[in-house]
Amino acid sequence: MSPFRVTSETPVSEILGVLNQHGFVVIERLVSASLMDQLAAEVAPFVDASAPGRDQYDGVHTRRTGALIRRCPTARTLVMNPLVRAVVGQFLGHASTYQLHLTQLITIEPGESEQKPHRDQMAFDFFDFPIGYHAQCNTMWALTDFTTDNGATRLAPGSGGLLDPESEAIHMVQAEMPRGSVLLYDGKVLHGGGANRSDHVRQGVNITYSVGWVRQEENQYLACPPEVARTLDDDLLKMMGYQQGAFALGYVGDQQDPLAALRGTDTKVKTVESFRETNESFRAFVDGIDEPR
After folding, report:
1. Domain covering 5-223 assigned CATH 2.60.120.620 in the classification
2. Can you give the residue ranges of every domain in the chain?
3. Are 209 and 101 in contact (CB under 8 A)?
């Protein structure tokens, strides 16, 4: 098996090892074809209504369809997949919380050219995160087979923060994978969509996660309005951002917990002591305070 590929039976620690070493990993056939059939049926009308990309970077033969939490109930299953969450939770475990960053179906149509290699963390205003600090962890679920001919995602192994795509030669590999597989990749690795030289579309469900203290790429509170959000379970809502992103981030009004505000209750956010117990950096900060206010 390729050094970038694992199975659903691979221990989380080994999956993390591949992700940390190369910047990406493919978990083959993680979900069933029937689940993907259901998702494809749910999303099809919205794909048809999505306009092609605005430029060569977006892809003039590429359609991007978002708001999948609201539009496609089956997408919620992918967002909350236990194995993916176990990997992402550890990969982003240096932060107090992590959250859903983006939901988007990417449809690459025949005739599309290769996308320019880029790092997804550039979305944060091109902030130069330290090499060892990861702000996000991304997934690309294969709604169709990903092949060399139809535009499977291209990635540069080990390129996180180390190569300049403008001045250095980079070695790209393609994440070929069967339908129902998932590619996990970090926000630093150079990557881009492949050229579609086939006669059929390539569709991938791009679900990404970020640490809780950054702004989400897709505004989850407008993409999924409150009347829909109130029908969802608490765990999914917390993943969408209805929780504290970190200490003193994300509360409503008089320090009200955001999930409680959505549900119509008055519960306040976590106390200083709660964060002290669970966050090493915050514990050091609190322990350095001589007197409480």
Report:
1. yes
2. 5-223, 248-293
3. yes
CA nearest to 106, candidates 79, 144, 74, 78: 144
> Per DSSP, what are the bridge partners of residue 98?
211
The DSSP bridge partners found for residue 192 are: 154
End-to-end CA distance of the chain: 59
Structural contact between residues 190 and 152, judged by C-beta atoms closer than 8 angstroms? no
From first to last of the 293 residues of the chain, give the pLDDT tens digit: 688 999 999 999 999 999 999 999 999 999 999 999 999 999 999 999 999 998 888 999 999 999 999 999 999 999 999 999 999 999 999 999 999 999 999 999 999 999 999 999 999 999 989 988 999 999 999 999 999 999 999 999 988 866 565 656 678 999 999 999 999 999 999 999 999 999 999 999 999 999 999 999 999 999 999 999 999 999 999 999 999 998 889 999 999 999 999 999 988 877 666 665 656 665 665 566 555 55
CA distance 279 to 269: 15
Q: What is the pTM of this model?
A: 0.92
d(CA 132, CA 29): 30
State the Cα–Cα distance between residues 133 and 230, nearest whole angstrom.
34
Contacts of 164 (CB under 8 A, 6+ apart): none
Residue whose entry in the numeric block shows the structure tokens 């970090």? 186
Strands (E), the chain: 5-6, 24-27, 62-66, 98-108, 136-142, 154-155, 173-174, 182-186, 191-192, 202-211
The alpha-helical segments, DSSP class H, found in the chain are 12-22, 33-49, 68-71, 73-79, 82-91, 220-223, 226-229, 234-240, 258-263, 272-278, 280-287
d(CA 81, CA 83): 6
